[in-house]
Amino acid sequence: MMARLAYLERTYKSTLMRWKCICAYKGTQFEGWQNQPSGGGVQNHIESALTSIFDTSTRIHGCSRTDAGVHAKGQCFHFEANWPHPDKKLVRAMHSILDKDIRIESLQKVSDDFHARFSAVKKAYKYSIYLGRAHPFDKEFVWACRDNPLDLGRMITASKHLVGTHDFTAFGALHTKDNDPNPIKTVESIELKKRGSTITLSITGSGFLYKMVRSIAGTLYAVGRNRLSPEDTLRILESKTRTNEIVTAPASGLSLEKIFYD
Prior knowledge:
The chain is α+β, with helices and mostly antiparallel strands. The protein folds into 2 domains: 2-110, Alpha-Beta Plaits, CATH 3.30.70; 120-261, 2-Layer Sandwich (Alpha-Beta Plaits), CATH 3.30.70. The chain has helices at residues 2-14, 42-54, 87-95, 152-160, 212-224, 230-239, and strands at 17-25, 61-62, 71-81, 102-110, 120-131, 143-145, 164-167, 184-195, 198-205, 254-261. Strands 1, 2, 3, 4, 5, 6, 7, 8, 9 and 10 form a 10-stranded mixed β-sheet that branches. A hairpin with a 2-residue loop joins strand 8 (184-195) and strand 9. The longest helix is centred in the N-terminal third of the chain and has 13 residues, at 2-14. 33% of the residues are buried. The model is unreliable at 4-12 (pLDDT under 50).
């Protein structure tokens, strides 16, 4: 009997397919991406939906952890399951269960050597700052600041110090090493644009420390307010020490835009 069960288990596993999924979510009500004991993580919700569909415990593996309140347009995860039906039918099944603030953007079968986290080559984030009182429909997606002007030119100058490969310890949270022991990251590009009352920070890089993008946004905001100089950004970076000069911008303005794979 035991041998028969072992054989059936091996047979089942041999039929499993690996699936790559891109999802979007509004992070306001969630406790971040990662599973939480309370069940409030985005991962909790997706795993619960898949477990219900496949009638077996289904684990997903995400690319990037996002904090509570942070949004995503292009979060990627993978999982293994046996689904002999059309891909679109699985998407419909997931949407019938998932919270309305989670949307499946794409789903495809991939090779067994694909890994949502370890196969990624770079990531793109966007941070939005609104100058003034944000519209009620927009306030959950921006950092609404006082309507004093920001000096965009100073912010752009400061941002150039952060492009390239550096030790970003000063821009990571104090307990960053618990999540990522390597503080050396490559920031490929930083772009700042102003449209109306919104300043958008777009940043692409090989990877980011815990709260690194929000810390960069907070620092550039301080430069725009003349609380720091553009040169202070370089000084702080080279210090490799987290100080109270760095302000972590609120989660609401941050969105994981895209994850790039070869």
